[in-house]
Amino acid sequence: MGKAGYSADEILEKVPLLRRTPTPTWPQHLAGISAGLMTMSMGFVAGWSAFATPYLRGKVAQLPYAPVDTSQVSWIASIVTLGALLGCIPSGFVAGKLGRKLYLLCLVVPLVAGWLLIMFSEGRVQQIYVGRFLCGLAFGGVTVAVPLYNNEIVEDRLRGKIGSYFDLMLSLGLFLVYVIGANTSYYLFSVICSTFPLAFVCLFVWMPESPYFLISKGRIDEAKKAIRWLRRGISEEALEVEINLINCILQQSSSSHTNRVKSLDYAKQSFNKLKNWNITSKAIVMAIGMMTFQRLSGVSAIMYYTVDIFHDANTSISPESATILVGLLGVIGCLISAFLVDRIGRRVLLIYSGFIMSLGYTFMAAYFMAVHYGQAMYYWMPVAVIPVMLAFFRLGLGPIPWFMSMELIPPDAKPWAQPFIVSYNWILTFVVVKEYPLLIEDLGYPYTFLLLALINAAGILFTYLVVPETRNKSHQEIQDAL
Fold it and tell me: What residue ranges are annotated as transmembrane (predicted)?
């Protein structure tokens, strides 16, 4: 029963009332963009090493302390992912206790502390490690809390658009950090990066808390106030329907969770289901497969070492300008993906994305092979190929595995499956970012890029044979297809 005494069936009968009473959408977009400022700050964390490591290595300008070696560079870039792995594990629990809004505001503390340690490191590599790790803790929390907040504040008709803000704002952060890094000194670069979390606080503090969280805590009056802010002009009848609908969903979820907890054999039953290749295990295997090829596509390495790659490629334009182009096309790729994903489908975008990535790595392997043997090559090729590769990554392999994995997994498995999948993603990111510079030293660019081309080709085959299409399908239709 809902709070107003409606039965579940009566609430569902009144749901069309919400669709018949459209309200202005700008408050929901504003709240989504405000939360996205924290995601954009994570783009700064991810992109910082692309411009900072050439300085720390002494390639760009001599800093007043000894340059770092390849092993230290790999740790500076990759330790963020270890922090993110640790940060994402408790995020669902903490956000459920503190609230989505308060938790996101709290994540600013380790983020700013990390930037301060980096700014005042003065060549102390261990201090940079600690600073990057703290930034990673915030990064991990953001990957769970921002999508959760955006999903709970929007109407159904806006869920796709506002849900796409996560990847879009991350790409925008990368683009901005590339522009800033190319036009400032090492120290000023780090100072500017540290100010964006404060801009997030100044705007997000005025945004409402998630109505789902407030209702789950029995704070109905606050939930009504939040919904009135998000749905400007909503009628009292429609407001009551939405409150009861959210309450009904939460009660159903709580009941399902309680029944599972009461079962002493739940863990054993879950393991047996996985062995028996049921719907949940199939969905998790598909999600893990998509995340595997997303991370092993090599984009994380390119993102963290962009300037180094263009510097070593001896491109026809400056490495800094080429890196800015990478960031710009990444943003454009995100925008195109948001427009196409519900029109032509997930599988098509994943396959085209993997194909262009594989083809691009093949071209880059041939380019570096020719340079290695002293043959004349088109020095504009890296500038043309790498940005296009990154744009096509943002078109399919970048955003789709994140939300499609949640489409595939049954609702009762999401509370434990989502942290597992996100943690797995961060583990792979750490491996790729940590080992990439060592692979370059051991194998060289040609064979490293050829390996990445083969991995992306395998990803195409996996998508074609295993991943189903979920476009325009209800949740029940997706489960039936599995």
Answer: 30-53, 73-95, 102-121, 127-150, 162-180, 186-207, 283-307, 322-341, 348-370, 376-395, 416-433, 445-467
